[in-house]
Every structure is written in C-alpha cells, then in structure tokens.
Amino acid sequence: MKKLSLILSVIAAVCMAACSSNDQFRVNGTVEGNPTMNMRAGYYADGVYKTVITAVREGKFEFTGNASQPTVLEIMDYEYRPLARLYVKNGDEYDVHMNPQDIYKVDISGNDESARWSAFMRNNAEKLRNDANKTVADYVGAHPDDVVSTLLLMTSYDASESAAEADSLMSLISPSARPSSLTEGYMYVLDRLVSDVAMAPVVPMKYLDSRDSLQNFNPSRHELTLISVSRQSDVRRDSILPALRRLSKEHSSKKLAIIDFSLDSDTTAWKRAARNDSASWKQGWAAGGLASIAVKSLGLPSVPYVVVCDSTGTQLLRTRSAGRAEAFINAQLK
C-alpha cells in the first residue's frame, strides 16, 4: 500500500510539473559585464499588458511568464530602455545573452523564431542603425512566409515615417506568418497612421494660448508649418524644445510657422512650463488630449509627435522624432 501511495505521489508530481511547464514560459539570461541591477519585462497576452520586475545578480537572471498565444516579450532596464526582444509562448524555455549598451548584440535560443530573429539583429546591426526601414523592407520582401518578417516590421520599422509602406509590407506577409493575436495592437495604430483623416491636408484651426486667448492658425500664411504635440516631460525638454529653439532662430516666421501643442491635463502646470520655455513660437493647449478639436484631425497615434505641412496643408512628414523634423525642414528651406 505504501509502495502504491509512493507511485501515485510521483505520478502526481510529474503531472503537476508537466502542467506547470505548459502553462508558462521561462526565461534564463546573462547580461554582459556581469552587473547587478533591476530589470523589467513586458508583453501583451490574453488581452492585457503584463509586467515582470526581476533582479539581475552578477549578470544572471531568470523569470517566468504566461502567454497562451505567441507574443513579443521586451526586456528593459529599470529606466525602460530596451535590452532584448524575443518571441515567446507557453511551454518554452529561453536562454538570452544581451549587452546593456547595444540591443543588437543579443543571442537567444529557445525556439527557432527567436533564434533567427536575434541572429538577424546581430548580423545586420550596422544596416539597422543606418537605415532600419530599408533593411526590414528587404527582409520582408524576401521572406513573406516568415513570422520573423512580422516581428521585424513591428519592432524595428518606423511606421510613423512610412506608414503607407508599412501597411503594404504587412499585407505582403502571409496570414499564417502574421497571426491576429500578435498583430492586433500594431494594426490598430497603423490604421490610424494610414487613415484618410491622418493623411488629409492640415486645415485652419483654433486653439487656446497660454493667456487663455483664442487664436487662429492658417497654414496658407507660411511656406512650411511644424506642428508639435507633446506633454511637459523630460523627453520634451531634452529633445523637442532644443529643436524648436534652433528652428525658430534659423528660419523666419514667414518661412516657418511653429505651433507647439500641449496635451497636459493640468493647465496651470503647462502655463508655468510654457513661461519657462521662453518660446518665441506659438504655444497652445489642446483640451481633451488627442481627441481635442485642434489635433484630432491629425490622427496622431501617440505623443510626442511632429507633423510638417506646406502652405496648402499637405502633410510632408509625420514622425516621432523632433530631430528628423528639424533635418527635413532645414533641407527644405536651405
């Protein structure tokens, strides 16, 4: 009887272990340089965004997650800087080696897709740094039946600058290599970027300035217009404001109009920050966020975001990068 009880216990333990391994995935990893640090991981699964916070001790870490359908897991440092991405699903165990200074220096094993994805990142690091969109487009065109094409398009291709091409590239990929469980969120954002509303000409608009006065703007009065939409944040101060200052000094208001919209819900804080900006360009408050009348017609997928249009309102550039907008305008008005 005792022998039978022992056998049943062993069987039960094996079954529990099997069920447990099939109900989760495991990630084991090493970080180059053997640091001790805190780290985050995030992924969408079963309709929600899941976050894991773990510790790296002398360069080693491990954690588990649960994703009933394959999904992209992003590993980040504690400041949300991406370190590695992998394609995960329940039942798999992954080994990840990464360099905290270079997301392209990553080596992943655990399934074929993650291994090939990381190998492509390592082998094409310079191409991705110099022209990620072309590099990804070339891979998608040559591998339409490969889920790695979908993974690269979703993570390394800047659709904010080439939304129509991103949409075309996604349609080139075979349905079996772009399952809706993986692409649903991405396609929602992409649809906003390529919608008729998003690509429609910029029309005259009304907005409130920092003195609560109603102002009118018409792109026809200027050769080019830059519309910046953001919140008062460190990212804004560190990247957007310096670019706007340089552009306002370089080009006359007749050549270039700059409208700087804030989506902050706290108008008092925005007005205080606006005064501190010492801006010589137009600043406005968009009540209602992205749904506000002033910016809704732009169909922005996220913030911060920059749109450049000409005197007819035709949109010439849509981008998340203030630096790219600055380079584009300087080239146009040279």
Explain this structure to me?
This protein is α+β, with helices and mostly antiparallel strands and 334 residues long. Helix content is 40%, strand content 29%. It has helices at 2-22, 112-123, 125-142, 147-155, 163-172, 180-194, 196-199, 234-250, 267-277, 293-296, 322-332, and strands at residues 25-31, 37-45, 48-56, 60-65, 71-77, 82-88, 93-99, 102-109, 205-208, 214-217, 224-230, 256-262, 282-285, 305-310, 315-319. The strands form 4 sheets. Strands 13-12-11-14-15 form a 5-stranded mixed β-sheet. Strands 4-1-7-8 form a 4-stranded mixed β-sheet. α2 packs across α4 (147-155), α5 packs antiparallel against α6 and α8 runs parallel beside α11.
Topology:
Elements: H1 2-22, E1 25-31, E2 37-45, E3 48-56, E4 60-65, E5 71-77, E6 82-88, E7 93-99, E8 102-109, H2 112-123, H3 125-142, H4 147-155, H5 163-172, H6 180-194, H7 196-199, E9 205-208, E10 214-217, E11 224-230, H8 234-250, E12 256-262, H9 267-277, E13 282-285, H10 293-296, E14 305-310, E15 315-319, H11 322-332
Parallel strand pairs: 1-7, 11-12, 12-13
Antiparallel strand pairs: 1-4, 2-3, 2-5, 5-6, 7-8, 9-10, 11-14, 14-15
Helix pairs in contact: 2-4, 3-4, 5-6, 8-11
